[in-house]
Amino acid sequence: MSDLQQVWDAAKASPFSPTFSKDSQFLVGAVLLTIAFVLSGVFALNRSLATLPVLAIPASLAFGFGAVYMICAVGVNV
Predict the structure, then answer these.
(1) Calpha distance 5→38 (Å, rounded)
(2) Is residue 40 in some structural domain?
(3) Predicted local confidence at residue 78, as pLDDT
(4) Sign for the pseudo-dihedral over CA of 32, 69, 61, 15
(5) Global pTM value
(6) Is residue 42 part of a domain?
(7) Is residue 8 in a domain?
(8) 6 CB-contact burial (10 Å; exposed 0-12 / middle 13-18 / buried 19+)
């Protein structure tokens, strides 16, 4: 038996289960996008180097993950 076949057989024993089910991806995406827009709005009003790690970085991460979850929730394959 080849190494690839052994890997395939081992993977069958533990199927992948996502962190958030397909039914909850829309809610997760909407919440993350809402958080991203609120944080980026607050950062736009109070721009400084001190608020960069507190507001801007979490806002960009929330927007990135929220956009991917929303794209997956509406059926666009990424």
Answers:
(1) 49
(2) yes
(3) 58
(4) positive
(5) 0.75
(6) yes
(7) no
(8) exposed
